[in-house]
Amino acid sequence: MTASRIDILLVYDPRFTGGTASAILTDAHAFHAAGLTIGLLEVTSGFFIDAGTGKNTALAALADLPGVKVIKPEACVVADTTFFHHPLTFAHQVQENAKIRSNTSVLVCHHPPFRGDGSLEYDPIATTRYIEQSFGIRPMWAPVSGVIRKHLRSFLPFIRLTNADWVNSFDTGNWMSNRPVFDGPIAVVGRHSREDPLKWPDTAADVAAHVAPREAGWKTRVMGCPEAHLNSLGANLDGWEIVPFNNEPVDYFVESLDVFSYFHSDKWVEAFGRTILEAMLMERPCVLSPSLRDTFGPTAHYANPADVHDLVRSLRTNVKATRQNCADIRERAAQQYASKAIPERLRALQNDTGSCSRLGPIQAAPITALRKLIGLKRRQRNAVSLEQAAKP
Predict the structure, then answer these.
(1) Which residues contact 164 (CB under 8 A, 6 or more apart)?
(2) Of 129, 179, 274, 361, whose CB count within 10 A is highest?
(3) Could you tell me where in the chain the CATH 3.40.50.2000 domains are found?
(4) Which CATH class is domain 172-337?
(5) Would you say 319 and 182 are in contact if contact means Cβ atoms under 8 Å apart?
(6) Model confidence pLDDT, tens digit, residues 247-258
């Protein structure tokens, strides 16, 4: 069988939405703009339980780019660099296989192995083995943030990490605001995310505290909201403007805000926070949970939910300083996350031999990680037993 020869091979489940899909798209378009040949290998993962989940139309459209090759399952492929996207795709195994030869191969880790409660959601060691069984290569792990790197260090030396994070990138020219914040009589506090309860605070009090004050001159506007779940918590959504997820272009939605406020469930670990970077690029002040400080450092404002209202009032009181700070943060974010830097980052990745060193912050000690792996395997066996028992 003749092998397809390409510069970049992207292996992914096309049903992903949200930040993962946006990251894949931005990378693919940057590779294409750099004149690199691209192959697309779509796979079907057990991660998506609902068989009716359709392809993301934007990901499907990558096949229409001039010169892009669609790689069929069981094909032989020779690629300079192969990117496997999202560990949960391969932790649940895929239906397809192919023979891939690649000078550099990485699994871009968009999701942490540990949940917020400390339990494991997937096994990185087994995930690496599944990829090797299906595709014949053993990739390094490329975390998208320091948070993910800290989690993955718990599984060294049984996996190998890239020395640099493969962070999300943005075509910064597409993220330009034409409206300064706090320019009218009504100030809007809001956020956007998937309609996932884990993306929201756990109590009605924290839900109410992290949006706009309920007083004259303020308004709450959100895109993507699990209304039934929030109502079950007892949260009062009266007066909120709720836009269905992806019902507006993200830049248009973010520009309608004066403050971007994001807090999530204690059960959730935010891998990166692409929506937050989008708000920064649109020169919106970001008010965040302190748990996100490791990722965003001095580029955001941090508070407990109960202190958000005082903070947003302060931002509005000091409009000139707030606008200047937003402009400065936008410039820093544009330099750090610009998609035009992807070709240079790719060259660095191709020279990255990886590391198994545990030096640096670690999420869990090896013995703890081992206990969590045993617990995960037990839960998986129990789930299989229950599924088999339910069959007629």
Answers:
(1) 345, 348, 349, 352
(2) 274
(3) 172-337
(4) alpha beta
(5) yes
(6) 999 999 999 999
